Amino acid sequence: MQYSKRKLVPPNGVMMCPYSKTEDGFELQMGTNHLGHFLLTNLLLPLLTHSEEARVITLSSLAHSYGIIPFDDMTYEKGFDRNQSYANSKVANILFTRHLAKKVKGTKIKVFSLHPGVVQSNLWRHVAGTFASSWYAALISKSSVEGAQTTLHCALEAEQDDYSYYFSDCAAGIASAIARNDKIAERLWQVSEKMVKLK
Ligand SMILES: NC(=O)c1ccc[n+]([C@@H]2O[C@H](COP(=O)([O-])OP(=O)(O)OC[C@H]3O[C@@H](n4cnc5c(N)ncnc54)[C@H](OP(=O)(O)O)[C@@H]3O)[C@@H](O)[C@H]2O)c1
């Protein structure tokens, strides 16, 4: 395998930011963390399908474990909690990966979602007292190099089976019950298609 020929699209994300909207009118966390990746992946799918080998890796979080999909209020007009909204966007990452796996079955595309660990990065900028500057951060968190390892494992080594859509610490992990629900995954896919006007 010639890794040097691989093109990498870096992950982006925001966490626990105050309520605001993207230019397209989506709540910032759902828009950036889920819908942005959803749209980009869909637009790239024709290209990926014809690639020698492609991998779609979506950075979720352990925070997905308390996430839900607010189908009745995807833009949080009725109420907003920045912590819950982040968790929701992170469970959306895994559900997206789960349904994408069905869509690309039979192609050479492999799909993964993962929790990178608690990593020292700018993601914490909206958290009070900025975690990254606290004295205990170094004790309980990963450096950016350590935090990249599960992503690299999924990009270079991990093998796909019907269950391993979610990785943590460079190994297949167990996602929450909601994250493993195929009906919710399909419904989220359909709702997302409408939101980003793919359909
Ligand atoms: N760090 C952790 O402890 C941790 C834990 C679990 C999961 N994760 C996940 O890992 C992923 C990457 O996080 P990270 O730690 O690498 O964070 P990071 O260092 O803050 O990097 C996030 C990147 O996303 C970009 N970005 C933010 N909003 C954007 C938008 N609307 N459009 C385009 N780009 C945007 C940022 O650009 P600017 O800097 O220019 O704003 C930045 O380059 C996220 O999905 C996060 O949920 C991280």
Structure description:
This protein has 199 residues and is an alpha/beta fold. The chain has a single domain, classed as 3-Layer(aba) Sandwich (Rossmann fold). 37% of the residues lie in helices and 9% in strands. The chain contains six helices and four strands. A four-stranded mixed β-sheet has the order 1-2-3-4, with helices on both faces. Strand 3 and strand 4 form a beta hairpin. Helix 1 (28-49) packs parallel to helix 2 (82-103). The longest helix has 22 residues, at 28-49. The radius of gyration is 16 Å and the shape is globular. The mean pLDDT is 91. The chain binds NADP nicotinamide-adenine-dinucleotide phosphate. NADP nicotinamide-adenine-dinucleotide phosphate is lined by residues 11-15, 32-33, 59, 61, 115-116, 118-119, 121-123.
Any chance you could write out the topology, listing elements then pairs?
Elements (H helix, E strand, L loop, with lengths): L27 H22 L4 E6 L22 H22 L5 E7 L21 H4 L3 H4 L1 H8 L9 E3 L2 E2 L9 H14 L4
Parallel strand pairs: 1-2, 2-3
Antiparallel strand pairs: 3-4
The structure holds NADP nicotinamide-adenine-dinucleotide phosphate (NAP).
NADP nicotinamide-adenine-dinucleotide phosphate binds next to helix 1.
User: Which strand order do you get reading across the main beta sheet?
Assistant: 1-2-3-4
Integer tally of domains: 1
CATH class: Alpha Beta
Main sheet properties: 4 strands, mixed
Q: Give the total of beta strands.
A: 4
First CA to last CA: what distance?
A: 36 Å
From the alpha carbons, calculate the radius of gyration and give it in angstroms: 16 Å
Which fold does the CATH topology refer to?
A: Rossmann fold
Structural class of the secondary structure composition?
alpha/beta
What binds here, in terms of ligands, is: NADP nicotinamide-adenine-dinucleotide phosphate
- Helical content class: 25-40%
Strand fraction equals: 5-15%
**CATH architecture grouping:** 3-Layer(aba) Sandwich
SSE arrangement, N to C: HEHEHHHEEH
